[in-house]
Design goal:
The structure is a homodimer of 242-residue chains. With 242 residues, chain A is α+β, with helices and mostly antiparallel strands. Chain A contains 8 helices and 11 strands. In chain A, the strands form 3 sheets. Chain A has a 4-stranded antiparallel beta sheet. Chain A has a 4-stranded antiparallel beta sheet with strand order 8-9-11-10. A 3-stranded antiparallel beta sheet of chain A has the order 4-3-6. In chain A, β8 (179-181) and β9 form a beta hairpin. Chain A is globular, with a radius of gyration of 19 Å. Chains A and B meet through β4, α3 and α4 of A and β4, α3 and α4 of B. The structure holds a DNA duplex (30 and 30 nucleotides).
Chain lengths: 242, 242
DNA sequence: TCAAAAACATGATATTGGTCATGTTTTATC
DNA sequence: GATAAAACATGACCAATATCATGTTTTTGA
């Protein structure tokens, strides 16, 4: 079940200076010298679809940044039910949180949704950086605050909305974050099965399939996993509770 | 509907040095001088049950600390449905988050659950403090990380568990955080109606009443809002999914 | 202490969404 | 391009929970 990752660490090489890192505010905010030093402390690892970056219960030793690809954060129950908490995109930070402080354990699993490239830094280095640079600390506070707000909005939707509303909210959110406008509508840039969506909205795969079939009949969406298109974002948003 | 608060600001008086502030890590971590200066910048306000500390959509100007009492963070829909995201207890921080950064708006409402006393500091002062003191910044990062983990655990429960499991999880959590051991069991220290519980677990009041009736029959809990006692925490925990 | 309001309780019924079963279509892989 | 696996689809049925209605008990406040 758990394949080992394709490790291709590039610590100390020139690879990390490439343009993919230009959209990481946490790194950009550092002075030139600090930035260079920190880049030297980051190591890069590539993972594939069936790897785990870490699993629920593993010790938290590193702070991570998504460089390329999409990573999902999931929690699961002993009987195999799964819930996807968040999809992390390039530039997203993870494990900046408290679990990393007291040598605790990961509260969830981080799993690639395809080929990804992850940068990581030892917690000690990370905490050093935060202590040295008030700008970096403020950036992390800002990032965590946004994550908390997102999580609370999700809580509200789970607590108060019906499955079709939750799905509409998910699709609208993905369209805004990861949508690429094309001739027919807004195409989602990542592969996303009905199962994936079900895990994100707290419903079963069958329920999502039924709702998607309805949305398709109503010309709100089209396509399946590899090519999902939002045809009518406005009408989709009319489902939302607020 | 919205009464004005009972303002009794005590900025600059000796009141803020009282022992209630000894359990606020963010303040304790500061050096003696800084601490004194920051205490001078905090103002205290008292609110009653029907006041609002702030409401969804209000501009975020202040950072807050709960000094006394319990505050609930809620979000609501236009049609009057409500969901309680978090109960804040003495020592808890709020609005340390990103909304406060760019002069944005509060994503939810903060409402006292009885008489409370709240300290607040202007965002400018708060950000100054964080920039000056790496320890304070680390404390806030730690706090936000914990809040994020809590929120994600709540998401998982909402997404995967039945109403009786969600209620059991809530009661177990409250027993651990706010329980006072007494002869019969663990008494919860705050008033908590079936309605309050319903808003916390994403269910209706009737559903919570029915489940509580069942839990009562099974001798897991006893009492109502003003005196809620957990009689058998172990058996209650046996309901949880993990 | 008395009245009004809030909280608690329970039944009947409707709705939503889960479960299980079965079949088709699409995608991935050799 | 054949074949296996994954994803998508749909129906029948059932369980969980919402909704609505009505009544009792407890709490609050004048």
């Amino acid at each position: 079940m758990s394949k080992r990752p394709n490790i291709s660490s590039s610590k100390g090489t020139g690879i990390l200076t490439d343009s993919l890192l230009d959209n990481v505010p946490l790194l950009n905010i550092l002075g030139a010298q600090d930035r260079q030093r920190i880049l030297g402390e980051l190591s890069e690892t590539r993972y594939g679809k069936d790897d785990f970056i870490f699993r629920e219960g593993d010790p938290t030793e590193y702070f991570h940044i998504v460089k390329e690809g999409t990573v999902k954060c999931v929690k699961s129950t002993p009987d195999g039910k799964e819930c996807t908490l968040k999809m992390l995109m390039p530039g997203d930070l993870f494990c900046c949180d408290a679990a990393a402080f007291d040598g605790g354990c990961h509260p969830g699993t981080a799993q690639p949704m395809g080929n990804v490239s992850i940068l990581r830094m030892h917690r000690k280095t990370y905490f050093d950086m935060l202590r040295r640079s008030p700008d970096a600390a403020m950036e992390v506070i800002k990032y965590l605050g946004n994550r908390l707000n997102e999580a609370q909005e999700k809580t509200k939707i789970l607590a108060l909305d019906r499955a079709d509303q939750r799905l509409a909210a998910l699709l609208a959110d993905l369209a805004a974050r990861n949508g690429i406008k094309d001739a027919q509508g807004i195409r989602l840039s990542m592969r996303l099965t009905r199962q994936d969506m079900a895990n994100m909205i707290g419903a079963t795969t069958e329920t999502v399939i039924r709702i998607m079939s309805r949305f398709k009949r109503e010309r709100l969406v089209s396509g399946t996993a590899n090519r999902l298109v939002i045809l009518n974002l406005e009408k989709l948003k009319a489902f939302l509770s607020v």
